[in-house]
Amino acid sequence: MIFIFGISNGRKDLNFHQTMVCSVCGRYGSYKIIMEYMFFSLFFIPIFKWNKTYYVKTGCCGTLYTIDRELGKRIARGENIDLQETDLHKVQRNWHYSMKRCSKCSFTTREDYKYCPNCANPMD
C-alpha cells in the first residue's frame, strides 16, 4: 500500500470588512485579514492545521500587522469584530509611504525621490 502525505504551508484570506483611517499614511482604507498556517495532508487532503498566525494588511499603503490568536479565531468564526489600534502589532511598513529625509537640508517627503527636490542631494 502506498501512502502519499506531506506537510506544507497554507494561507487563507478571511471574510472581514472594516474601513479605517490609516495611522501610517493618513488615507482612508480597509483592513484585510490573512491567516497563515502549517498543515498535514494525506492523499492531498488537509487533515489538520497548526501554528496559525493572523495578519492584518491595510488596503491603502500595505502596512502589515499581527493580531492576537484568540482575536483572529473569533474573526475566522465570523463574529462581528471592530479592530482597534491597540489590537494591532506592526510587523512591516510599506517602503513607499515611509518618510525620507535629505541628509544635507533636512527636507522630508513621502515620495520616492532619488534626489532631493530642494537641494539636489541624493536621498538616503
Description:
This protein is mostly beta strands and 124 residues long. Helices cover 6% and strands 43% of the residues. The protein has one helix and eight strands. Strands 1, 2, 3, 4, 5 and 6 form a six-stranded antiparallel β-sheet that branches. It has a two-stranded antiparallel sheet with strand order 7-8. β2 and β3 form a beta hairpin. It is elongated, with a radius of gyration of 20 Å.
Write the layout of secondary structure elements.
Layout: E1 5-13, E2 19-21, E3 28-42, E4 45-58, E5 64-67, H1 69-76, E6 89-92, E7 100-101, E8 108-109
Antiparallel strand pairs: 1-3, 2-3, 3-4, 4-5, 5-6, 7-8
Domain module tally: 2
Low-confidence sequence ranges: none
**Largest sheet, described in full?**
6 strands, antiparallel
Q: Got a strand count?
A: 8
Estimated helix fraction: under 10%
Radius of gyration: 20 Å
β-sheet strand percentage: 35-45%
- Helices and strands: which structural class? mainly beta
Mean pLDDT: 87
Gross morphology: elongated
Number of helix segments?
1
User: What string, H for helix and E for strand, traces the elements in order?
Assistant: EEEEEHEEE
Terminal CA distance: 61 Å
Give the structure's gist in a few sentences:
This protein has 124 residues and is mainly beta.
Record keyword descriptors for this entry.
two-stranded antiparallel sheet, 8 strands
